[in-house]
Write a structure and sequence with these properties.
Shape: globular
Order of helices and strands: HEHEHHE
Number of domains: 1
Structural class: alpha+beta
Number of strands: 3
Distance between the termini: 38 Å
Strand content: 5-15%
């Protein structure tokens, strides 16, 4: 399956999609994400770099557990359906809010 076909399948299924980033997303990536996976949500964990699962393993595991059975991703532990989307407003990243999965935990 090609990358385009995979993205089409994820989009068609409206599968929960949560991006955990170590810094705010670049504007071009925000736009691409908003167009490609409009249902995606983003949370920013400053300082986690490219490997938030290694930088914050427990927090990442908690995030996975919260999102495991959700029809929409929980952003920063909030089941708000991704109101923190970057390019479409400010929530796959209008960005991180304080919460159990945000910086400082």
């Amino acid at each position: 399956m090609t990358v385009a076909a995979t993205l089409d399948a994820v989009r068609a299924a409206a599968a929960p999609y949560l991006v955990v980033a170590g810094s705010h997303l670049e504007p071009d990536y925000q736009r691409w994400l908003a167009l490609t996976l409009p249902h995606a949500a983003v949370t920013v964990w400053p300082g986690s770099g490219h490997f938030p699962h290694i930088a914050h393993p427990r927090r990442f595991a908690d995030c996975l557990a919260v999102n495991a059975n959700q029809s929409r991703p929980a952003v920063d532990g909030q089941r708000d359906g991704g109101k923190d989307r970057g390019a479409s407003g400010a929530a796959h990243a209008g960005r991180a809010r304080a919460g159990p999965f945000s910086a400082g935990r």
